[in-house]
What does this fold into?
Amino acid sequence: MNTIKKKRNTSQYAIWFILLGMIIIFTIGNRVFVAPNNIVAILRQVAVYGVASVGMTFVILLGGIDLSIGSIITFVNIVCAKMMVDMGMNMWLATLISLILASVIGFLNGFMIADIGIPPIIATFSTQTIFQGVAYLISDGMPIAGIPAGYSLFGKDSVGIIPVSAIIMTICFAVGSFILNKSYFGRYFYAVGGNEEAAELSGIRVRRTKYLVYILSGLFAGLAGIIMLSRTGSAQNTAGLGYEFEVITCVVLGGISVNGGIGKLSGVVAGVLFIGSLTNGMILLDVSSYAQQVIKGIILAVAVGIDLMSKKRKVHN
It folds into this structure.
């Protein structure tokens, strides 16, 4: 038993050792990588998919997937900007309404998956397509500029040298960790992801759990969209394009099993920092954007492959 526990602990901390090794390599390649200004820049960059990864962690723990995250980020960008710029709405009210709408999209995902029985990959791909189109319709395919100066609070401002967006991300990870480790909802997430039928038989309301998870995923994605809008200062119709891939990679790299029921949010923190540092380091080393896509794709494939192989070994043992 002690040997098995040691192996599990080693696998959980492996991503942290890999992250450290990568930092050393990039520092040797370009000293600017560890400069304070660059570290702050990395924290700003990772905040968007760091926040969204909390919700995705819940979804993958449940054994599901949420491909709508990128579209929710885009949708929130466009809707929030539209309300502030064209309707003259107070920025706090516009933000609140945008987050509610993001949660409603999550509710819609939950309805299709839990009540209708549509597979998560199809249901969330559907909402991804729908709300990407809705964002284009609302904006007429044009970016929305003229965001109030005060809206830089969430994405550009800092407390001392620490970006507010990094503080928001840290709070989101803390809340997510509390939910998973200290609440009965977290136990439900692991139970349903481990064995849905057994969870149902033990009295867990699986349908409600799925609703809750997808609503939370929508909410965190919406908050990520708010941070992005604040950082860029304008709403783009491609704002969240491809972000679901970045977020899924962060979560899987962090040790959350694609089969559900296994993993900790602390590993996801390392996964987020890994992807952020990797992207930044490759830019500093002048790696082309196409090569970056290839490298990230390989990393995701390897991470999923290792996860599946480790599960097969457990079954055989």
In short: Residues 86 and 144 are 9 Å apart (CA to CA).
